[in-house]
Design goal:
- The structure is a single chain.
- By secondary structure, the protein is of the alpha+beta class.
- The protein has a single domain, classed as 2,3-Dihydroxybiphenyl 1,2-Dioxygenase, domain 1.
- It is about 20% helix and about 35% strand.
- An eight-stranded mixed beta sheet has the order 2-3-4-1-5-8-7-6, with helices on one face.
Length: about 180
């Protein structure tokens, strides 16, 4: 079984934890000084926030598998989507866990992570541990798949930043 993953960079971890705990109706399953993670069952999602990247907003998306034998078919799907950007990371330490991972970027440069967790580690990434776990990591995505930071226009037709005329003109295109 797979679990959808979203990792969001935040400015203020405590404020964000309060917000998401209320939104999800649950406290984080993991809480560190720079990181928090919810393992929700409804919807089935691994939702993480951190202050580590220096950017706010979506850091990356992903699919987490429950069993090692589910990872190979997921890697095949990543390769079919874009073999040129595929990066394999076996037994890497990231986000307080050791995992076998694969990364690919979508056409917009958004990093997608596919992984199976092998267990917890004490540090956010191997660099924090002085490489004590055996492999340096570009945690939350190799540099080649990290999403580019870019200016984002206010929400187009449906979001809170949209003007009333914009919502009316394009409601049928994206809000319906």
């Amino acid at each position: 079984m797979k679990r959808f993953h979203v990792h969001v960079g935040v400015r203020d971890l405590d404020d964000s934890i309060r917000f998401y705990a209320q939104l999800f109706g649950a406290e984080p399953a993991v809480r560190k000084p720079d990181y928090a993670k919810w393992m929700l069952e409804d919807p089935r999602v691994n939702f993480a926030i951190s202050t580590r990247s220096g950017r706010v907003g979506v850091n990356h998306l992903g699919l987490q598998v429950d069993a090692a034998d589910e990872l190979s078919p997921l890697r095949e799907r990543f390769a079919a989507a874009d073999a040129r950007s595929l990066v394999d990371e076996p037994a890497v330490a990231c986000c307080y866990a050791r995992s076998d991972k694969h990364w690919v970027s979508d056409p917009q440069g958004v990093a997608w992570e596919g992984w199976h967790s092998l267990g917890e580690v004490q540090f956010y990434d191997a660099a924090d541990a002085g490489d004590r776990v055996g492999q340096a990591s570009a945690c939350c995505g190799p540099a080649s798949t990290a999403p580019a930071e870019r200016e984002v226009e206010p929400a187009g037709c449906c979001g809170p930043g949209a003007s009333a005329p914009a919502r009316e003109r394009s409601a049928a295109k994206c809000c319906g």
